[in-house]
Batch of 2 targets.
Target 1
Amino acid sequence: MVYKQAIEAAKEHFGKVLEGQLERVEQLKKEQVWIDFEDIRPIVIGILGGDGIGPTIVAESQRVLEYLLKEQVDSGKVEFRTIKGLTIENRAAQLKAIPDDVLAEIKKCHVTLKGPTHTPERGDGWPNIESANVAMRKALDLFANVRPVRLPKENIDWIIFRENTEDMYAVGNQGINVTEDLGIDFRVITTQGSRRILEMAFDHARRMGKTKVTVVTKANVIKTTDGKFLDAARVVASRYPGITWDSWYIDIMTAKLLDVERRHEFQVIALPNLYGDILSDEAGQIQGGVGTAGSANIGKRYAMFEAIHGTAPRMVREGRAQYADPSSVMRAGAMLLEHLGFTDLGSKLHKALDICGQYEKRVIMTGRSTGATSREFGDYLMATVQEPDMEARWELYSVA
Ligand code: IPM
Ligand code: MG
């Protein structure tokens, strides 16, 4: 048989992938407990600027966080720490998705606020290292990617729970070219990995008084892995009798997000990694652009907060980095506050962002010189968040 050798080599490679994943499943079986920020002092917040528009927009989010947390910083409850070196230049020089010394610094923080980092793709001039995002999600076991989308004027309040460590991403850089003409990638879905993201989605629904969780797969076609995710959904849902759930296929789900009559009926959405990547960009666009959408990467021990979008190389190339919308990382900052237990501060920041970005819009961003700069938007947001009656004003807008 002509391909015997190629097949044997592929089998051996596949065997190694399986060994790694079975080991991972064993790790997942060991219950981990959630970190409790109540007793931690200081809570260390690491700041990672990232690449492209990252440093510009992260600076604006850091500014508002430092303002809101001033009391906690003064009393020693919270500490900000800048971490250098998570740049494409340094990562390429060290041929590492995350250089070891940078990862060690990240692990000394409880949470991080991170700018987008460049993900090399074949032929773009950078060595083909793994995405820093994907590597960090795996290294810190940040299994839940939580992406809220709010459009109060349309009564939309979605929250997407995207599984963050499995699916096509688990071994995305371990695919194999069996021959020159045949490439195979591997999709990984585990019972444990599915259950924990679904549990988080259902827990969130229960805590926030939501009534429905929508589970999205393509289980009619991708029977084994999506089938397993859906099986996990049935098991988890049975433990939440007060919450209904429905199952949608990803194709019709992307269509339904454009159905202005019905889309407000979605509440909590839970789905595997790649579908979640795509659906959350669509949802972010509906909110007003991916530049307005923040994202939380949450694990039981660590958490990382970031924009849902990338480094915007086109904006940088055309000299427009200073016009990047910082609301995405500011939303991420609001989620960071909520995660640490500063729920009132988080809610305040969300409301200020609603006012500036959706209701009042006194400063308009266009991503170019026809609109405001990140700094100008940051100034506007800072002024808004400092108004004593800001939250009352938000109430008025939100019922109007
Ligand atoms: C995201 C991004 C990342 C992803 C990229 C940068 C690897 O698109 O956070 O959604 O695909 O997860
Ligand atoms: Mg994405």
Note: The mean pLDDT is 96.
Target 2
Amino acid sequence: MSRLIEQLREDGNLPEEKLQRLLQTDEYDRELFQSAMEIREKYYGRKVYIRGLIEISNYCGNDCYYCGIRKSNQNASRYRLTEEEIMECCRIGYGLGFRTFVLQGGEDGWFNDERMCRIIRNIKGKYPDCAVTLSLGERSRQSYERLYEAGADRYLLRHETADETHYRILHPPGMDLQKRKECLFNLKDIGFATGSGFMVGSPGQTVETIIKDLRFLQELKPDMIGIGPYLRHKDTPFKDCEDGSIELTLRLIGILRHLFPKALLPSTTALGTIHPQGRQLGMMAGANVVMPNLSPAHVRNKYELYDDKICTGDEAAESKAHLAEQMSLTGFEIVESRGDRAE
Ligand code: SAH
């Protein structure tokens, strides 16, 4: 094993210039992935945890330049699920073996604390053996506290970039990196299992900003880290920007597995979109979670964060069976459990 990978394994804290080298060449990839798989096996075996993703609304008050459901996109066909529809997704998901439900959406005021808490209580009341994860963007500390008290277990909020200047490139005035970070520290402090992350290859990203992302994550110590390639959407100001690369995304998953041995690392939908075997490749680079879509078929193509987002039109049951088969071909096994982080 090369000295660099050995050092990464030993203390996970490579000095700046070594991290730069690791990020910039493919020369360590084989060893990196092999070593990441060993770490993954130590804590999680060949298990793959599944999360049923329910996209509750594509209304959004924010105007992030990269995102297809941004407020200014007049071409987006807006929807929000009813509470009954959300419960129906959970019912179907439970029958398929899902024991975590992720409620994700744009920042939609309709889903205020009262409605969200009722939904969370309903899900936890009916399925006490399941975890509820939320991904609803920035809210006040008080709001997060209410959601936690209602029974939500986890919260996903990507920081998107830890570099101030880069944050300004990606977001309109009024959005603020400090505020984002404050939300993340609040979530952790309240007791949520907390997830953060960033897009790989977003416009303006450099090796330096990526290193800042890694350093920020080391400070935050999240339980979950989601990364996926940036992919363009035709109705955004970034429509002509290049997509992120699968190579760098996989390399970063491998690095994250070393820096955060026990973290829950999803092989994301964006990774599955950029390459037909993307999600299996993610597993082989050190990921241990996948989040199949449980949203009702009629809204799936509307939650369009980027062009061509994978959405087979299959019913949830078919796509889960297909995924299980694909995973088993590469020696991974989908398990029916909440899939909490290893102790
Ligand atoms: N409103 C929630 C959920 C956002 S969607 C929130 O703010 O957290 C979830 C993630 O999709 C975002 O955090 C972002 O990293 C990713 N995303 C958005 N647009 C994307 C694009 N064009 N390409 C790749 N990923 C994108």
Note: The chain has a mean pLDDT of 96.
